[in-house]
Amino acid sequence: MKIKKFMAMMIAAVALCVSFASCGDDDDDDDNKKDEKKVVSAAESLAGDYTGVMTLTVMGSASDDTVTYEIKKIDDTHVSLTTPAYGSGAMALPAITLNDIPVSVSSVGGVDIISASVSEISGSIVVNEQEKAYKFSDVVIKGTGKKVSIAYSLQYGKMPMAMVVSFTGDK
Q: How far apart are CA 53 and CA 119, in angstroms?
């Protein structure tokens, strides 16, 4: 009799443990997580390496070349832009990084356009042990999906005229 009572208690204990272990409300959480979309900031959406055609115009004379621009997220509302090194010899331009460019989002016809712009950024960079001043004016970056367009004017070193740059590229 003791064995029957013991076995009945063991079966009841196992049944109780199984019933508690199988109950839970966390199954719905997994389904909800699948439906949630990750919120990505405008700066994060714009960040990436873009390769495409850059047109550089100086005093009405234009030249095209395939280059890569790098855009990095600084925070949710700011990016940095690194221009490509370009040219050679005395006419070589080094890669220059422009920091803290504010980013915004607008919607046109249901398409989100991410814009980053700044009216002027100036500074200096050391090239071949010489300090060269630079001034970027009217910097505008516009991105949609995996495409970006970049435009700016650059006064570099002792050049008396500005270089006007336009770029269109893909991620």
A: 23
